[in-house]
Amino acid sequence: MGKRVLIAPLNWGLGHATRCIPIIRLLMERGHHVSVASDGDSLDLLKKEFPNLTFFNLPSYNIQYSRNIPAWLFTLWRTRAFLKSIAREHRAAEEVIRGNNIELVIADNRYGCWSDTVKTIFISHQLNLVMPPGTKWMGGAINFFHRRLIRRFNAIWVPDMPNHVMSGELTQTTLSAEFIGLLSRFERRDEPKRYQLAVVLSGPEPQRTLLEKNLLPQAMMLNVPTVFVRGMVNEKMGESEIENVKIYNYLKSDELQQVISQSEVIVSRSGYSTLMDLAVLKKKAVLIPTPGQPEQEYLAAKFMNERVAYAVDQERLDLEDAVELSSEYTGFDYVQSDELLVKAFEKQGL
Q: In the β-sheet with 119-123, what is the strand arrangement from edge to edge?
């Protein structure tokens, strides 16, 4: 008899939703009844991927970026509003749990989706919040309160291997956590190469649009076969072409996997879920961290120092140089397996 499981990804970019896709697929394969609770683009994306599931709206965290204020500082300044959003989310999640006989909740970075009545699992690759230069002294206090939020859950799942191969310092913690392997909606397949370059955009506004305005003219000037995926979930899914650049507003997982597999070099943000996708598909990449987001800056620097992928700041981006320099790096290459995820499922009776 399958369990009634609620999946609740954070709506902050698309990565929290996309990495829930393999979890949802495996739950369904094992005969469980899956529902999804989220808001905004994350909810819309999963509706496109799984149109037959039941969906619930949760209150938004109203995460915003500023053009001029670093993302970490803007988020810290809004801490009080953030905590109020978590409280509203908790009340809404409890209503969904009670009203739909939910037996287990798997929450990807949604801090309010814990419960006193059913078992809840927290998924995160950021158990240790890294601080930007000059603010390391705040790290201890911030991580103390961060751990308090996470300890409300019955279990913690980390989407990485036990040796922290992708997450590095981000998952070094005193919390009791279980590593469940890399989570990617993609599976590696050999595809004939059609594009020299694929630009895959994602992340909150206004930085997504700022990067698009920077990259698109440069991609057009390169005069090489290029595909440009804007990451606009709510736009029409049609395609257009300008000179050598084929442009998509949004692609579903199977279509995006094909485009990435058919491309020599991927240009993207250094968001963790994007990096897991690149790792599974064994791609060379140019990484452009979201300005002022320490986690992405840390990951971009990590993989550049390890000679895996070339990374460059958004304001210094020269696409032609970046693509040329990317050839000097090894590219991502990790073996995909759901063995650890299956073990985690079995521990929870799934």
A: 54-57, 33-38, 4-9, 104-108, 119-123, 155-158, 178-179
Contact partners, residue 89, CB within 8 Å, separation at least 6: 58, 59, 61, 110, 111, 112, 113
Contact residues for 141 (Cβ-Cβ < 8 A; gap 6+): none
Tell me which H or E stretch contains 312.
Answer: none
Read off the pLDDT of residues 281-327 as tens digits, 9 standing for 90 and up: 999 999 999 988 889 999 999 999 999 999 999 989 999 999 999 99
Domains of the chain (ranges, CATH numbers) = 4-182+337-347 (3.40.50.2000), 195-326 (3.40.50.2000)
Tens digits of per-residue pLDDT, 319-347?
Answer: 999 999 999 999 998 877 899 999 999 99
Rounded to two decimals, what is the model's pTM?
A: 0.92
